[in-house]
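User: Predict the full complex structure for these chains.
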Amino acid sequence: MAIRANPKLIEELELYGAQDVSKCYHCGNCSATCPFSKEPYILPRRSMRSLQMGLEDKLLGDLEPWLCYYCGECSQECPRDAEPGETMMSLRRWLTARYDFTGIAGLFYRSWRAEVIAVLVVAMLTGIGFLLWGFSQGNIDQYDGPNAFLPSGQVHLFDWVMAAVLIVLLGTNCIRMWWFTVGRDKDARVSFGAYVRKLYQLPYSFLTQARYAQCERKRPWLLHLVLMLSYLTMLVLIMFFLGEMAAGPEVDWRVHVFGLLATAGLLTTTILAMRGRLRKTEPLYRYSHETDWMFLILLAVVASTGLLQFVLHRSGLDVAANIAYVVHLMGVVPMLVLEVPFSKWAHLAYRPLAIYLADVKAEALVAEKQAAAPAPLAPAA
Amino acid sequence: MDDMKIGVYVCNCGTNIAKVVDCDAVAEAASALPGVAVARSYKYMCSNPGQEMIVSDIAEQGLDRIVVAACSPRMHEPTFRKALQQAGVNPYYVEMANIREQCSWVHDDAPAATDKAKALMRAAVLRVARHDALERRSVDMDPATLVIGGGIAGMTAALDLADAGSQVYLVEQSDHLGGNVARVDLTAPYLDSARDMLTERLTRVVEHPRISVVLEGEVEEVAGFVGNFTARIVGRDEERRPVETTVGVGNVIVATGYKEFDARRITHYGYGKLPNVITSFELEKMLRAGRVETKEGKPPQYVAIIHCVGSRNPEFNSYCSRVCCMTALKYAHEIKSAVQGVYVSDIYVDMHAFGKGHEDFYRRTSEVKTLFLMYDKGDSPVVRRADPGDDCGMLIEVNEKLSGETIEIPADLVVLMVGMEARDDSERVAHLVNISRDKDGWFIESHPKLDPVATTTDGVFIAGACQAPKDIPDSVAQARAAAGRILARISRGRLEIDAMYAEVDEDKCSGCRVCNDLCPYVAIEFDEEKKKSHVISALCKSCGACVAACPSSAITALHFTDAQIFAEIEGVLL
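Assistant: Here is the predicted structure of the two-chain assembly.
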C-alpha cells in the first residue's frame, strides 16, 4: 500500500521550530554519529525523511524523537547544515501538540501570543481569586496559623484538585501516545506480560535519567537531573508537607533543608539554562522556541517567589510574605494547569513513557520478524 | 650486407634494462655479426651524450645503419631518427629493438632474458640492413572549412575559424541557427539566459564576412581527402528552389547535435495519454512564454520532475544523458519563480552533479525546499490519474529508496526529463564523411581520452552532442578544440604525411578491388580508366590490411616489406 506524501507538512512543522530540513540529502552521517541510533530505531535520519515527505501518520507513531536528548552531535556532523537536532526538537513539540486531544497544546506552540495571553489570564484569575478568598477569610498580615491569609490546609486541597485535573489530561494524552506508537501498530503486538515485565523502566528512567547519561557529554545530563530532582523534591514537599513548610521555626529542619536545597537547585539550573540560551553555549541552546523561554521563566518565577516567601516569613514580614505567596501561586497555577499538560512540561510524561514503549515494542518487532521468517533448513543427514 | 657499416647500441637504461639483461654480452654478440662495425653498451642512449655518441660514430666511422636496443620505439624512435638526420643519414635507417618493455621489464630469469635480448638485437640488425631511404611528403592544405550543423557547437567553431582569417561554410538543415539551445530559456547552474548567449553568437555568424551560412541546406557529398575535400551543398534560393554549390575545403567539422527521446515509449508515465505529462522541451516553451500552467489553464499546485526518462535503462538507452540532472534542478528553481507557492518534487535516481558549480546548485535547490525522492533504476515510478475529489490531478507511486517506503506523491504537472539520442540522419552523415558510429549511434572519436574531437578519418572532426550527450560548456570546448586543431594545420600551409604508407604496384594489380572496401581509412581509390586500385598516401595509416589481403601480392607497405619482416624472423631464429 502506498503512503500518501504531503509536501505541506514541513510548513506546519516550521511553526514548531523546524528549519533547514529540506537541505538534508540523506548521507546518514547524523544517524551514524547518534549514540542511540540502533535498529529498530534509526535516528534522526528516518524522522527527517518522514518529515520531508510529509508522512504525517507515520510521524505520529514515531518514538524516535523521544529517544533523542539533543546532544547536538548530529547537527555538528551534518555536511548540509540541515539541523537534524533542532528538527527532532521540533518533532517533540509537534508530537506534544498532537498527543493532546484538546488542541490547546497545538495552539500554544503555534502562537506564542496565545500562550502568553492564556498564562497571563490564568495568572490574573489566580491572583484575583486568591486575594479575594484570602481577604474574605483571613488576615493579610498572618502567614500561618488561624486567620492565615492563605491557610495551607485549603490551599493543599486546591493543589490536589489541580493535580487530579492535570493527571486526567496528561493521562489521557499518554494513552493516546501509546495508541499512536504501539497500540494500533499491527506489526508490534505486545503481550500484557511484556508490558508488566518492563514496567520498572518508568520510574527508573524518570528518576535517574539513565539513558541521558549515555550521551557523550555529561554536563547536560547532570544539569537536567538536578533540575528535575529539585522540581520533584518541591512537588513532594508541597503535596505532602505543605503545612510543615509554611510553619515557622518549629518546623522540622529536614523540610526546610530539602526545600532550600531544591530551591537552590531550581534557581541555579534555570539561571544556567537561561544564560546558556542567551549565549548559545550548547548545541541545544542555539535555537530557542517561545515555549522554551516560557518554561524557564515560569520555573524561575515560581522558585524565586517560593524562596522569597520563606525569607520574608522568617523575617517577620508576613504581609510581604503573603503577597509573595499570591505571586507564587500566580506562577504555579498556570504552570500546572497550562504548561504541564499542554506545553514543554509534558515531556516529563512522554519521554519516560517513550523509553518504556520503545523497549517493549522493539522486543515485539523482533518476535514478529522471527515468527514470520522461514524455519532454517535441516542439516544434511 | 658486408659493405654496410651498422652501429649497434645497447642501452642500459640505468638499471631498467641492465638489472636483468647483460648489456655487455648483447653488445659483444652484436659485434660478432657480419656488417656490424660498432657495438656499444651505454647507460642512457636517449640522453644528449648518448645521441651525440651516435652522431660522432657516424661521422668518424662512416656508419650508415643504426640499431638501438633499448625501450619501445613509441618512446624514442623519433629521438634517434632526429639524431640520424642531424648526422646527415636518412632517418629511416634506424631500427629499435625493444629489450625493455618486451624483455627486461617482463622477465626475471636473467640468462634467458639476455638470450632473448640477443635474439631481438639480431632481428633488428638483419632488418635494418634491408631498410630503404624514405622521404616525408606533404600535400596542400586548403584553408577553408566545412561545418555541418548550425547549433552552438557549429557556430562557435565557425567563429573561431573565421576570426582567425579562414573561410567557413556553415550548413544548417533547419531554417534557423541555434539548434537545441535555441529551444531553451535559462541554463544551469547559473540561470543565465540561453537567448542572450545565442544572440551574440548568431549575430556575429550572420554578419561575418568569412562565414557563408546555408540554411535549409544539406551536404550531399564530400569527396577527396584531408586538405583537399570537395563538398556539394544543396540549399535554397529566395524562391525556395533548390540550388547547388560545390566548395573546396581542407577540413570538415561535424556538429549535428542530438534529438530527444520519445517519451511515448514509456507507457507508465502516461505521456501522450495524460494531458499534463510533458517533456523538458515542452516545459521550456512554457518558461519562454513566461507562464507555467496545466492544460486546463490553471497554475499547478504540485509539480513533479522525473529523471532518467529513456536513459540508463537497458530497455531503451543504457547511457546517461548527462545534462538532465542539472536541468531538472534548473526547472525546480524556474517553476518556483513562475508559480507562487508551488510544491516541487524531484524524482531522481542519482544526482549527477559533476561539473563546476553543480554541487552548490544542488544544495541551493534543496534550500528552496524542493522535495527530492530517489527511485531505483530498474524500478521506475508510475503516474496515474488521481480521484476526482483529490486536491491534485495525478498521483505518482514511487518505491522511494531513501526511506524504504512506497509513497504516492501528488502532481498537477509532471515533467519528464527525456534523454538525448543520436539523430535519425546520423547514419547518413557518418557515411557522408566516412566516420563511424558506436552502438548508440554517437560518432566515434579518434581516442576516448587523448583525442576527443578527431576521428579516424583524417580531416574530419566532430564536436558537441553528436559525439556523446554533453552540456553547453563541453560542446563549446569541443568546438573550439576542433577549430584549434584545424587552425594549427592551416597555419602550416601544407600537411606533412608520414613516409610510411602502402603502395600498389600497378603492374601486379588485377583490379579485383578487394582492398578498396577493406581499408578502414577509406584510403584506396579505384582508377576506372586504368582499372587499377590506388592508395591515397595522405590517408593511409599503414595498418597493412590491404597488404595482407591482396591476392596478387600487389601491395607493399613501405618500411614493412616482406623482405624486412622475413629478415626479422630470421634474426630471431638464428
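The mean pLDDT of chain A is 91.
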